[in-house]
Amino acid sequence: MRPFTKAFIVGLVSFFLLALGIGVMAQDDPNTPLPPPDEHMQDFAWFIGEWDVQSHMLINADTDEWLDESLQIVHTYEMGGHIIFEHFFGPLGGAPFEAWSIRKYNPANERWQQRWMDVSTGPIITWGGTFNEEGLYVGYNEGLLDENFELKGDRGLRETFFNITDDAFSWVYETTADGGETWNVEYVRAE
Fold first, then answer.
1. What is the pLDDT along the chain (191 residues), one digit of tens a residue?
2. pTM greater than 0.85
3. Strands (DSSP E) along 79-124, which ranges?
4. Are the CB atoms for 180 and 156 separated by under 8 Å?
5. Ramachandran region of residue 138, left (φ > 0), alpha (ψ -120 to 50) or beta?
């Protein structure tokens, strides 16, 4: 077997560096079109825009005390329509609040996935959900689900979008403490 010559190795390294440089330049070119997003990204097209939100939040379940507030949400398509960015801000529970999230349709598991982060001391929350045959979107906190997308214990959190039109939608946030036998409304977003 013949050993590689110094000139061959220098040429090979130069070729790879040149190829890497071309690849980096192509990545940095803003005129390079991105591949089209999954067609399901249009399932949330009604969501895009600025929303003035009237919220109704449960403050005390024992006394059935609720707090009504107004806040804002802005949804935009980003990365060429591959993700939806959400900016949620205003009072929540009587205190200043702000949150960001990203949503994306995952064709591998045929579910929408969301990462929610806010100013609370809690963790980044991963949500997953689908639109059902009635056109309702139902999503669950994936941290409380098993590999079959079912509650793995008694506790669960879910969100449901309904009454969806081009200029309005309703949203309910619910909890369960009995494995999904009953769901309790804790937050309502209404037009």
1. 445 455 544 454 555 555 555 544 445 667 788 999 999 999 999 999 999 989 999 999 999 999 999 999 999 999 999 999 999 999 998 999 999 999 999 999 999 999 999 999 889 999 999 999 998 999 999 999 998 899 999 999 999 999 998 888 999 999 999 999 999 999 998 65
2. no
3. 83-92, 95-106, 111-118
4. yes
5. beta
